[in-house]
Amino acid sequence: MATTSFSLLLGAAMVCIFLYLMVRTSLFIIADYHWTEKWLAMALLMAETFTMLHAFGYFLNIFHVLHSPRQERRIAMDRVPPLRSYPPVAIIVASYHEPLDVIEDTLTCFYNLTYPNKHIYFLDDTRYDKPGLDLADYRARVDDLCERIGVNLFRRPWRGAKAGMINDFLHYLHGNPPEGFTMTSFEDEPSAQDEKYIIVFDADMNPLPDFVEPLVAFMEDNPTLAFIQTPQYYTNFEFNRVARAAGLQQAVFYEYICEGKSLQDAMFCCGTNVIFNRQALWDVGGFEESSVTEDFATSLKFHEQGWSSAYLNKVCAFGMGPEDLGGYFKQQFRWALGTVGLFRTIVGAFFRNPRRMSASKWWEYFLSGTHYFVGWVLFVMMLCPVLFLFFNVPSYFAKPEIYFLFFVPYILLTLSLFLFSMSQRRYSFRELAQGILLQALCFPVYMKASLLGILGFRGTFGITPKAGATSLPLYALWLQVLLAVACYSAVWWGGLRLWYEGDNPLALLTNAFWCFYHFLLLSSIFWFNYPEEKRS
């Protein structure tokens, strides 16, 4: 009964979204705009349309989750099939000059995995030949660490960052290793290179001992699966505000969105805590090396080739999130650049052969590929109320009473449903607000990355720093600070206009409200940028 009521509310929210868009579009068309503000008004309408479509996609994923009986799902922890054999599995981590204490923790967790037929490989991708660097001591300590724990150590001439390293390792498994490679085996029983599955971790990810068994069981039971993705959880979640907010931002993605994508066979790989069918990876030519988000790009190749994917919503591994705004912005820039860059590929693939994937898959890829345009959306939505209060443009409040008749139901219903749906997964409003705040503060990074991505700039792969938190100088946050000052000033100017002019008070109050809201949001940049001591 509760599910039925919630589904009806979801349906009502989706109807409200389309009604609101129809009203906003109609108001835009009939309003007597001057040509100089026509473009700004259109930008606002496009920003609202973007927000509505992505909200619709989110609620559609929730709808799929609610209406998919658990007993019919292929991948769920209460339906793990029996594991009748233990096919060989390669546990791998690619590392580029990561801190040795981080590597040791990860390799120790690999060693403690309870799966009996595993082979552990450390793919050391450090640039030992890079001019100006003396890494002889680091290399010797890596060798000692792998020997002490009992881990196979793979090296090769550097190329292609993480994707290139894994592809070269894949060629090694298939008996066609790259030139100049070295494989040093420190296992008690050397690997036979016949691993059926490959499990990929980031260098700071620590899996739980029983990580492998259920994933292999699902893969054995579903031979068309290319990979199964599991969520990430940050161990520095509790004591670092940036890591906590970044983790909560990801929680929104790893809950209903991933489950909904999985139910539509449209889940994409997130690069770590994931098991691959080795044959599937070989079938698509390995990881896509032309993108800094090689995981997302490779997922598209899997689905285009007819392979399936899935998501298991069980936290099975723990890692470290970015601990300051510099690290967070670097991480988000790389994700945004690669994702928007792939959007060009998605559009091209769709127009070349729209029947290659189902409509639901294309829809999910379009949503994912356009997500990081949210930076421009946030900028437009923050800027427009300021411009209205100072210059009375864009004058989009042609009929405020009609606008509010449709806007208020939409915002109240969608916000309530979002908070309620996440509360069912034990997330509070305060926690979710932190993730939303941090993502909103990243809008200049998303703007730059999405512009470069759509222009075809590839960028370079970079690891997220793990050396503790430092503050960014204010000049690095100039756009957030400048816009916060503009919003605060606009609130005061709107109040003066309301007092002395008194014309169109509903529009003035509404825009002043949004300016004050955006000021509070933007001013949180100082809280997130405040340095915190790293705890052990």
Structure explained in plain terms:
The protein is 57% helix and 8% strand. The protein has 536 residues and is an alpha/beta fold. The strands form two sheets. An eight-stranded mixed β-sheet has the order 4-3-2-1-5-8-7-9, with helices on both faces.
Low-confidence stretches: none
Question: Between the first and last Cα atoms, what is the distance in angstroms?
Answer: 47 Å
Q: Give the helix tally.
A: 18
Sheet/helix structural class? alpha/beta
Portion in beta strands: 5-15%
Q: Rg from C-alpha positions?
A: 25 Å
Give short descriptive properties of this protein.
536 residues, two-stranded antiparallel sheet, alpha/beta, 18 helices
Q: What is this structure, in a nutshell?
A:
57% of the residues lie in helices and 8% in strands. With 536 residues, the protein is of the alpha/beta class.
